[in-house]
Design goal:
Layout (H helix, E strand, L loop, with lengths): L5 H10 L29 E4 L3 H7 L9 E2 L12 H4 L9 E4 L3 E2 L1 H5 L7 E5 L7 H8 L3 E4 L8 H15 L2 H22 L9 E5 L11 E4 L2 H5 L3 E2 L11 E4 L2 H7 L3 E5 L11 H7 L7 H4 L3 E4 L9 H15 L9 H13 L4 H7 L12
Parallel strand pairs: 1-5, 2-3, 5-6, 7-9, 7-11, 11-12
Antiparallel strand pairs: 3-4, 8-10
Helix pairs in contact: 6-7, 7-12, 12-13
């Protein structure tokens, strides 16, 4: 157990652990199972764990953070996290620990501004939420990051919890409604497409705890699920639950998808190791139908410090436009991406991201 800072404990006692008689419970429970009650408004927070700061940014409250994890300070030529690209000032904030929830109590207690609350996604990852709260005497609120498939209600519950604590309840409902409207729109556009009109497709190069090559894929890839696309992986693993998988080269060759989508996070794997290098330099893949017919396309990263929800929706519109041009005739994928980013993070970033990927996004891939 780390030694507590006496002054920080005193501050916590005065500002954080207010008796419920003085400040009614919010209905939120902290990491130790205590009802969360706070007198006054929350103006200083930390976000620990994969995606936590992304959710705060969606709620237009990124200015409340007083320090960041080390991932926000890294220099990278290709950074596919729109929430960070919209807020480069994160890099200048004090450090409170390492990414994936490895918060450090001594750094938190030594910050120039003490947080009133810590939001922690993936509560047991890194330093467990209860241990972090016990070491700092600062309420830690566990959040389930969720997803846009079967974990959607967990995602929405986390947005609502965060919004309630920081006074952004209305914004949380706006974000939830935005997601729901987009998903309804995608479903509506493809509802009448006949089974025989659905071409087969595959997503490769998906990141998972780092960049990967061609055979790294996602079962239940949301842009395919949202558009009812026929993922070749469904032949053996039908799923509406997203899950990372590494498939064999033999399987991909046997499936021979009509359309191939490449997650451009693969560029972070290195110049001679990513999916684009494999497709261009390995003779094994030359007989793939999608390559012969020019139907291999680059898409925005699905996963980088967990799921990029805005990019997932943008990719879904591009996949829909590519596979079913009729129902998506009114959609400009790049413009749609900027519409999504503008709402979620306040900036149009498609051109910035596309440039960092060598202008390969939402375009046929030149593998020569």
């Amino acid at each position: 157990m780390q030694r507590r800072n006496f002054c920080a404990l005193c501050l916590a006692a005065v500002f954080l652990f207010v008796p419920t008689s003085a400040a009614p419970s919010t209905g939120v429970v902290d990491a130790l199972g205590h009802p969360f009650a706070l007198e006054g408004s929350v103006t200083k927070v930390l976000c620990s764990g994969s995606g936590a700061l992304r959710l705060l940014t969606y709620l237009q409250a990124q200015h409340l953070i007083v320090a960041v994890e080390d991932i926000e300070k890294r220099e990278s030529p290709v950074d596919p996290r729109p929430y960070f690209l919209a807020n480069p000032g994160f890099r200048e904030l004090p450090l409170f620990g390492e990414f994936r929830g490895q918060a450090r109590a001594e750094l938190i207690l030594g910050l120039p501004e003490q947080p009133q609350v810590i939001f922690k996604t993936y509560p047991e990852a890194g330093i467990p939420a209860a241990e972090l709260q016990d070491a700092t005497a600062i309420p830690v609120i566990p959040l389930h990051y969720g997803d846009l498939l079967e974990g959607r209600e967990k995602l929405y519950a986390s947005l609502r919890t965060m919004g309630q604590i920081i006074g952004r309840k209305r914004r949380a409902e706006e974000v939830i409604a935005f997601f729901e409207n987009a998903l309804d729109d995608l479903r509506r556009r493809t509802a009448d497409v006949k089974e025989e009109e659905r071409p087969t497709c595959f997503i490769g190069g998906v990141a998972y705890r780092g960049a990967h090559g061609l055979t790294s894929t996602e079962l239940g890839y949301p842009p395919f699920v949202f558009t009812s696309a026929r993922a070749v992986t469904e032949a053996e693993a039908p799923s509406t639950r997203s899950a990372h998988a590494e498939i064999s080269r033999e399987k991909l060759l046997a499936w021979d998808p009509e359309y191939l989508f490449i997650d451009l996070s693969t560029l972070n794997a290195g110049e001679r190791t990513g999916a684009l290098h494999e497709l261009g330099e390995t003779s094994l893949w030359r007989d793939l139908r999608a390559l012969r017919e020019g139907k291999a396309f680059g898409v925005l990263p699905y996963n980088w410090y967990t799921q990029n929800f805005g990019s997932i929706l943008a990719d879904a519109y591009f996949v829909g436009k590519t596979l079913f041009p009729g129902p998506f005739a009114d959609i400009d994928p790049a413009g749609k991406a900027d519409e999504i980013y503008r709402f979620l993070i306040g900036k149009e970033l498609f051109a910035v991201i596309d440039t960092s990927f060598g202008n390969r996004t939402f375009r046929p891939l030149d593998l020569e």
